[in-house]
């Protein structure tokens, strides 16, 4: 890094530091769950380093901090180091800190300069490159749903809605209510302020159907850039909530009787040469590519759900009549189907995947969804007939538990080739380890109903 490295900073980061002395740089990378791992270093040290090291084993840890067998098979706990190089286009403020701090996302390489296949950002870049090799630019627009809940430091205690500024708990069944949004006004103000300091454009914030459930929409754009923003957004939303004595949670189903939280992903694909949406023809009609993309989602999403719904809790969201899909039907402007075609003009024609949970790693969730569409385009998959009516009246055709989803994922060799075979191997091992950890826990339901009755 050169002494004048701050000249490489994006405009929002430059504006944030204007007239101020930078104290610290947080060098971060997302692990499999999407947790920020890395090091905080003085700004003067960051200026002197071109890279830093972290052990590759961070990609073999479960959400509980234990290790999957993949660590033994791959690195053998030798703690082999990766080389992490900064992507300065991702430099952004950490406006909740006490001093003047920047965050910079890093990319992971081995000693020969090859991308580490298990790094989630590298997985997404791999998929995007496959599109680019076909002369396409994939475009995504993610929606983020989350809950603001009362502080909860006891895992045995049920999660409760946060207390609004009126002094009453957040109410459910208030979708799109501006009064409900006002209840969280101070938290939302900080979310806006943090996002502005970081240079992120929020397309809108709305109240969702759950008690204390909000949705943030982001502008459409490059998949890697949008995944970076979601990675950053999760942290800034948590920090904003903590300032107001509540928690922000991205669990797929944090409260039993409330809807779950999704990360709906809108997709379109642009022709790199003409800049036109390949889902729309010259006269504005739907193209074969449009239908092939839908066909790919229908064919490969059952196997990809292990990535879009990565935890045992994720599958509690797929419940009939609870604002989450139970099948892979597709329909126009139909929110009961797993695949929805929103109302739009030809230039903005897009396909919405409603299966991804907000608990998924944004890099991996977007990569898996794009991978399914890519396979459909390459194999010219045809979708089923458009569904009309209430898809909840039909049969469910997606996995209902993590173990079943992982079985389908392990069999999906074509999907592995797109995401990366080594990543697919390690991901499956880590997730099966988590599943076994969960099965070893005896739940309150079992103690209540089985202890004295069976």
Characterise the protein shown here.
The protein is α+β, with helices and mostly antiparallel strands and 454 residues long. Helix content is 34%, strand content 18%. The strands form two sheets. Strands 7, 8, 9, 10, 11, 12, 13 and 14 form an eight-stranded mixed sheet that branches. Strands 1, 2, 3, 4, 5 and 6 form a six-stranded mixed sheet that branches. A hairpin with a 7-residue loop joins strand 5 and strand 6 (101-109). The longest helix has 21 residues, at 288-308. Its cofactor is Mg(2+).
Keywords:
single chain; 454 residues; alpha+beta; eight-stranded mixed β-sheet; 14 strands
Question: Would you spell out the secondary-structure blueprint of this structure?
Answer:
Blueprint: H1 11-17, E1 24-30, E2 36-42, H2 43-48, E3 52-55, H3 69-74, E4 81-86, E5 92-93, E6 101-109, H4 120-133, E7 136-150, H5 178-183, H6 185-198, E8 202-207, E9 213-218, H7 223-242, E10 246-249, E11 265-271, H8 288-308, E12 330-332, E13 339-341, E14 351-353, H9 362-379, H10 402-411, H11 413-419, H12 421-439, H13 444-450
Parallel strand pairs: 1-6, 12-13
Antiparallel strand pairs: 1-2, 3-4, 4-6, 5-6, 7-9, 7-10, 7-11, 8-9, 11-14, 13-14
Helix pairs in contact: 4-7, 4-9, 6-7, 7-9, 8-9, 8-10, 9-11, 10-12, 11-12
Family: Belongs to the glutamine synthetase family.
Cofactor: Mg(2+)
InterPro entries: Gln_synt_N_sf, Gln_synth/guanido_kin_cat_dom, Gln_synth_cat_dom, Gln_synth_gly_rich_site
């Amino acid at each position: 890094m050169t002494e004048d490295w701050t000249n490489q900073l994006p405009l929002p980061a430059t504006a944030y530091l204007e007239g101020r002395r930078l104290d610290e740089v947080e060098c971060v990378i997302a692990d499999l769950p999407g947790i920020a791992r890395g090091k905080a270093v003085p700004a003067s040290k960051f200026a002197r380093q071109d890279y830093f090291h972290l052990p590759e084993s961070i990609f073999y840890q479960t959400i509980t901090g234990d290790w999957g067998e993949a660590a033994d098979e791959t690195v053998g706990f030798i703690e082999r180091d990766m080389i992490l190089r900064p992507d300065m286009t991702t430099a952004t403020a950490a406006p909740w800190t006490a001093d003047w701090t920047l965050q910079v996302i890093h990319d992971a390489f081995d000693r020969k300069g090859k991308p580490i296949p298990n790094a989630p950002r590298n997985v997404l870049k791999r998929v995007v490159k496959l599109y680019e090799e076909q002369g396409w630019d994939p475009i995504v627009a993610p929606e983020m749903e989350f809950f603001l809940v009362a502080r909860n430091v006891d895992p045995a205690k049920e999660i409760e809605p946060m207390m609004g500024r009126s002094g009453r708990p957040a109410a459910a069944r208030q979708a799109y209510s501006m009064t409900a949004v006002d209840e969280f006004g101070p938290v939302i103000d900080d979310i806006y302020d943090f996002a502005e300091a970081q240079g992120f454009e929020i397309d809108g914030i709305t109240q969702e159907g759950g008690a204390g459930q909000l949705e943030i929409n982001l502008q459409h754009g490059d998949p890697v850039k949008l995944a970076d923003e979601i990675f950053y957004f999760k942290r800034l939303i948590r920090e904003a909530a903590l300032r107001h004595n509540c928690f922000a949670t991205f669990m797929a189903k944090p409260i039993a009787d409330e809807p779950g939280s999704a990360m709906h992903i809108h997709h379109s694909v642009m022709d790199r040469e003409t800049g036109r949406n390949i889902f729309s023809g010259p006269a504005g009609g739907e193209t074969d590519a449009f239908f092939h993309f839908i066909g790919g989602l229908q064919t490969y999403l059952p196997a990809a759900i292990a990535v879009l719904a990565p935890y045992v809790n994720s599958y509690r969201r797929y419940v009939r009549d609870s604002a989450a899909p139970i099948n892979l039907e597709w329909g126009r402007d139909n929110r009961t189907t797993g695949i929805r075609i929103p109302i739009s003009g030809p230039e903005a024609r897009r396909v919405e995947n409603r299966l991804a949970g907000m608990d998924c790693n944004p890099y991996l969730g977007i990569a898996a969804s794009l991978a399914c569409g890519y396979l459909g385009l390459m194999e010219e998959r045809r979708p089923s007939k458009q569904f009309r009516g209430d898809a909840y009246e039909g049969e469910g055709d997606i996995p209902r538990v993590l173990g079943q989803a992982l079985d389908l994922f392990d069999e999906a060799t074509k999907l592995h080739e797109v995401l990366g075979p080594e990543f697919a191997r390690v991901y499956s091992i880590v997730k099966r380890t988590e599943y076994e950890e969960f099965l070893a826990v005896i739940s309150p339901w079992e103690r209540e109903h089985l202890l004295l009755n069976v």
